[in-house]
Amino acid sequence: xxIPRAPKTRFVxxxxxxxxxxxxxxxxxxxxxDADAQVLLLPNVETGREDxxxxxxxxxxxxxxxxxxxxxxTKFLEALGTASNGKVPPIEWIDVVVATHPxxxxxxxxxxxxxxxxxRIAEFWDPGYFHPSGTxxxxxxxxxxxxxxxxxxxxAGMRRFVGDVEVTVLTPSVALRxxxxxxxxxxxxxxxxxxxxxxxxRAKFVPGESWQxxxxxxxxxxxxxxxxxxxxxESWAHAMADFPDLMKSQxxxxxxxxxxxxDRDFLDADVLKVSHHGSKKGVNYELVDRIAPKFLLLSxxxxxxxxxxxxxxxxxxxxxxxxxxxxxxxHRPDDDHLRGVFYTAQKDTADVLLGSIAIVGxxxxxxxxxxFGDSTRNLPAFDRARRWVAKEVD
Length: 394
What we know:
The protein is 19% helix and 23% strand. By secondary structure, it is α/β, with parallel strands linked by helices. It has one domain (8-48, 56-378): 4-Layer Sandwich (Metallo-beta-lactamase, Chain A). A 10-stranded mixed β-sheet has the order 1-21-20-19-2-3-6-7-8-9. Strands 10-11-12-15-16-17-18 form a 7-stranded mixed β-sheet. Strands 4-5 form a two-stranded antiparallel ribbon. 44% of the residues are buried.
């Protein structure tokens, strides 16, 4: 297991919160070692309330995907109001909490999150996979008392709109979901993986006219992310069948029957949160090639007991981003940053830990990637935020 270093000269110190606009989706992949803790701050929406001056009060809907092995996600949410210098109001409400699957490295901090935000969580999603662990039982016990929280066990194809963001469940497939208790599905393949995109491509009603797509929405102009949880190749195989690549055909026969009218693969995304911490079982070449992400993010440790990220997985990511197989050339691991591959446990060439990752994006705008220099024990240090840049700086 080797995590390549990223050049110090590719990062510039900047004001993170000053760069965030109302329409941006802000994604945090927290540095929690071989675990997952992700927080999404969605584009601002109006609350229907007014402040003392009569101005509309806005908030950012919040989605939490997994809570790692500790309380880092909870502490991060509780500190955001102060840490953002008022750019994000204190988090009073979480719209969706997703426990992707019941392994401890994904739900270890979930009991604390549910306790601290009890009465302030609208929906809780998990795959419905029974797992006889103490942490899982604690989560289910606490959830049973949270009668105000909607409990959902989603499967592939479910779509949820949160503000101006659409969240589509890619895995587990219905076929895998229906086999949990009969044919022995690996708990990793029960993972809830998501496609998150903004602006939402839904319809609206114009009085006196008709239903139509929201003004300005073009799926090709969406900013989109795929969050892979710990889904492995069996689960992704179902997803690739459930969401086929139906590229638009120009043949007369296809036009006559209206076949394949799309001109974009639904699995295409700007960012891929690589599943299972870079395990060799996590993704295959065809999947990454179809997604064609600008950034590939891995949540992992530099002292992994499992050897994550596996070298085979790293080679797959490199080949998908820089196709050298035909030429016989060899990938240079130190060029991972040029391929958009980044790790939470990564250091720069000055031996400085890069830590938690943030992605800031919206439609028709550049995607920014930021690092905060935090260890697994500390919260992201926004005063030390560094932005990734395409060209080297002094």
